[in-house]
Design goal:
- The protein is an alpha/beta fold and about 475 residues long.
- About 40% of the residues lie in helices and about 20% in strands.
- The longest helix has 20 residues.
- About 55% of the residues are buried.
- Bound molecules: nicotinamide-adenine-dinucleotide (NAD).
Length: about 475
């Protein structure tokens, strides 16, 4: 079995204890993973703090060169990282490979940005400049659905801006992150990047640590609220990318046969474990029956299995807790609606749930009102568009949403009315590193990606100089 280590102060370090990481497709142990103690977390923060003065004074070009080297390393080791990601996360190898290359592409994107000094005014009486300075030590907390990709929202911009970082992957998916740490350790100065792990017990300590100046968190809304509370005492900067309950609205001019595969993919990619997956679908009553039937056919035909097996389109849920939760939601949905595909769970090992389509279900059912984060989609009908938008917006989340129609003007008008951080038209679930990403309402705070995604790792400083 491969040995994994933490990265603290430039050294690969054993954990004070270990914890098991399990392959969700087989429920078999993959590795004894190092588990950090709180003392090790403190050492990681200390080393990041010690590395900050030196790193923050390097030229931004030098820091970008390091990120480019990291991108090269990711690509050169893509097969190994993808295999490991599939083993610990469950996703098909092809999707894991896409994630690994996506991570490298996101690194490269951030190296195309700069943080120039802006001259706001240069008049007779004064010169006013805006500078973007690094903050210090960043604590970065990542969930288990896209362990590598979501790290790439944080590590490259944090470092390019001149910060140092302590990263904490989720307890069920630490291995690809630790292997990544080992691969890059010699291209970053000691202490600039640190990796610790936990069994869901160190996030609060990292958040509240007095030497952590900013917390960049991706995870559930409930944990995000704890991060916000933990950061409040010292008024730390926070970026929160949280849960969602994205609605898709399909108008009656859409061809169900043509749209169904796209809608299916929007909801079921990564076995539904995507923050911006389509989690509720509203279909106009004129095409409701046909759309439900198309979606059910695709669901029935989709091969699920071990992500390492060729031909697997959807892997297992990542962990037992999520598996049990989704099963529970399906059981309740059986009372509240009609299951027309999936719905049954086999006794075989692995956290597998077949893609499940539920029709004739309404708001008030947990499957509609809560974030399922799994392969089960409630499909509801509506009779007028305003009503559909109202229902789509009637949630405390606001991450994404989409409108599907042949009439782009109409779709645009409805998109304007949807309360979400991103609204797509005739697609869903598209992310690009150059496009700012963030949630409204309880889906988050702040922005990742794009220029703003870099600026969030800085403190704006004004220099206002009198001229004689
Ligand atoms: P989670 O909130 O349970 O865990 C996320 C991370 O927070 C893990 O690393 C966990 O160890 C850590 N954590 C646990 N308790 C903590 C605490 N008290 N303080 C600080 N950190 C703590 O989320 P999850 O179940 O791993 O991930 C699924 C959730 O993440 C879903 O709600 C999904 O929508 C959301 N998500 C959001 C985005 C986005 O960009 N908006 C992207 C991916 C996932």
């Amino acid at each position: 079995m491969t040995e994994y280590r933490l990265l603290i102060n430039g050294e690969m370090t054993p954990g004070d204890t270990t914890m098991e990481v399990v392959n969700p497709a087989t429920e078999e142990k993959i590795a004894d993973c190092p588990r950090s103690s709180e003392a090790q977390l403190n050492l990681a923060v200390e080393s990041a703090k010690a590395a900050f003065p030196g790193w923050s004074k390097t030229a931004i070009e030098e820091r970008k060169a390091v990120i480019l080297k990291i991108a090269d390393i990711i690509e050169a080791n893509s097969s190994e990282l993808a295999q490991l990601l599939t083993e610990e996360q469950g996703k098909p190898l092809e999707a894991a490979t896409t994630e690994v290359f996506g991570m490298a592409a996101f690194c490269r994107y951030f190296t195309s940005l700069d943080l120039p000094v802006e001259v706001l005014e240069d008049s007779e009486g004064r010169k006013v400049e805006s500078h973007r300075n690094p903050l210090g030590v960043v604590g970065a907390i990542v969930p288990w659905n896209f362990p590598l990709m979501l790290m790439a929202f944080k590590l490259p911009p944090a470092l390019i801006a001149g910060n140092t970082i302590v990263l904490k992957p989720a307890p069920t998916t630490p291995l690809s992150s630790l292997r990544f740490a080992e691969l890059i350790k010699d291209v970053v100065p000691a202490g600039v990047v640190n990796f610790v792990t936990d069994a869901n017990d160190l996030g609060a300590a990292l958040t509240a640590h007095p030497d952590v100046r900013k917390v960049s968190f991706t995870g559930s809304t409930a944990t995000g609220a704890k991060v916000m509370a933990g950061a409040a005492g010292l008024l730390k900067r926070i970026t929160l990318e949280l849960g969602g309950n994205d609605a898709g609205i399909v108008l009656n001019d859409v061809d169900p046969k043509e749209a169904a595969p796209k809608l299916f993919d929007s909801a079921f990619q990564n076995t539904g474990q995507v923050c911006i997956a389509m989690k509720r679908l509203y279909v106009h009553e004129d095409i409701y029956d046909e759309m439900c039937a198309e979606l059910a056919t695709i669901a029935d035909e989709t091969p699920i299995g071990n992500g390492l097996d060729q031909g697997t389109k959807l892997g297992p849920l990542n962990n037992k807790m999520q598996y049990e939760r989704v099963k529970e939601l399906i059981e309740e949905a059986k009372q509240d609606g009609n299951i027309i595909a999936g719905g049954d769970v086999s006794d075989e090992p692995g956290y597998f749930i077949r893609p499940t389509i539920v029709r004739d279900i309404k708001e008030g059912s947990r499957l509609v009102d809560e974030e399922q984060f799994g392969p089960v989609l409630p499909v509801m009908s509506f009779s007028n568009e305003e009503e559909a938008v109202e229902r789509a917006n009637a949630t405390s989340w606001g991450l994404g949403g989409s409108v599907w129609s042949a009439n782009l003007d109409k779709a645009y008008e409805l998109a304007e009315q949807m309360d979400a951080g991103t609204v797509w038209i005739n697609k869903h679930l598209e992310l690009d590193p150059s496009i700012p990403f963030g949630g409204s309402k309880q889906s988050g705070l702040g922005t990742e990606l794009g220029e703003e995604g870099l600026e969030e790792f800085t403190q704006r400083k004004i220099i206002n100089m009198a001229k004689a």
